[in-house]
Write a structure and sequence with these properties.
- This protein starts with a helix and ends with a helix.
- β5, α4 and β6 form a beta-alpha-beta unit.
- It is built from seven helices and ten strands.
- α3 packs parallel to α7.
- It has a five-stranded mixed β-sheet. A three-stranded mixed β-sheet has the order 1-7-8, with no helix packed on it. Strands 2-3 form a two-stranded antiparallel sheet.
- Helix content is about 30%, strand content about 15%.
- With about 230 residues, the chain is an alpha/beta fold.
- The protein has one domain: Glutaredoxin (3-Layer(aba) Sandwich).
Length: about 230
């Protein structure tokens, strides 16, 4: 059933968020707002690592060690983040879910440049709140060669400082279209991640972070390659 349900959800969300005839991936390299490498300023404390809105998130900063967490593979087997990045520079993509057309467009764009990243010695993984059994349909639909992982309780996503509560109007729309939202343990309502790209060196230290409160703005694959080259030396 998942193979049927998720494409349908993606179709619903396609019209919901006004994708129109296409879902372009933003260049993402031209403004400071979209090149987040330090925690965003906010006077509001985050409860359980969850911001009140995407504008108030406090993303992990460059120079910080990538936090530990247990993620789940499509086959249901757990994998530790520390083991995932051990001894190899890694590009970590955080996306909202396989139901989001902008996410699928971005995942495909990353797939386009993955061979260049692999040549430089990088591993590519993508993390979302999707259930483990929802990951494989996204891999197949987006024709991806890299690994997708589930962070259903959003422990890793919250540690990255990317989680936020949905506002009532958006929540009502998403529930109307039966988008599979998640209320993590300790949260007071459904939560989503701000999409992000985190580049980690072989020592597990974050070297580059891109996030943008506007989920339609994503890091272009060519910009990702350029930033990875700086880290690879």
């Amino acid at each position: 059933m998942r193979m049927i349900i998720y494409p349908a959800l993606a179709l619903f969300s396609y019209f919901l968020i006004g994708c129109g005839g296409s879902c372009p991936v933003s260049g993402g390299g031209g403004s400071e707002a979209s090149q987040t490498v330090t925690p965003a300023a906010s006077g509001q404390p985050m409860q359980f690592g969850i911001a009140d809105s995407p504008e108030k998130i406090k993303p992990i900063s460059a120079g910080t060690e990538l936090p530990g967490a247990t993620l789940v593979q499509p086959d249901g087997k757990p994998v530790e983040v520390s083991a995932m990045v051990k001894g190899q520079p890694t590009v970590v993509i955080v996306y909202r879910g396989g139901w989001c057309p902008y996410c699928n467009k971005h995942l495909s764009d990353v797939g386009r440049v993955e061979p260049e990243l692999v040549k430089m010695g990088f591993k590519v993984v993508a993390v979302s709140p999707d259930t483990p059994d929802a990951l494989q349909p996204t891999v197949q639909n987006d024709k991806l060669d890299y690994q997708l992982l589930s962070d259903r309780d959003m422990v890793f996503i919250r540690k990255l400082g990317l989680a936020f509560y949905l506002d009532p109007a958006t929540l009502a729309k998403y529930e109307q279209y039966q988008i599979p939202l998640v209320t993590p343990p300790g949260a007071t309502g459904p939560v989503l991640p701000v999409p992000a790209v985190v580049i980690v060196d072989s020592q597990g230290v974050v070297r580059y972070v891109h996030s943008d409160p506007d989920y339609k703005t994503r890091l272009d694959g060519d910009v990702l390659v350029a930033e990875a080259k700086k880290i690879a030396g």
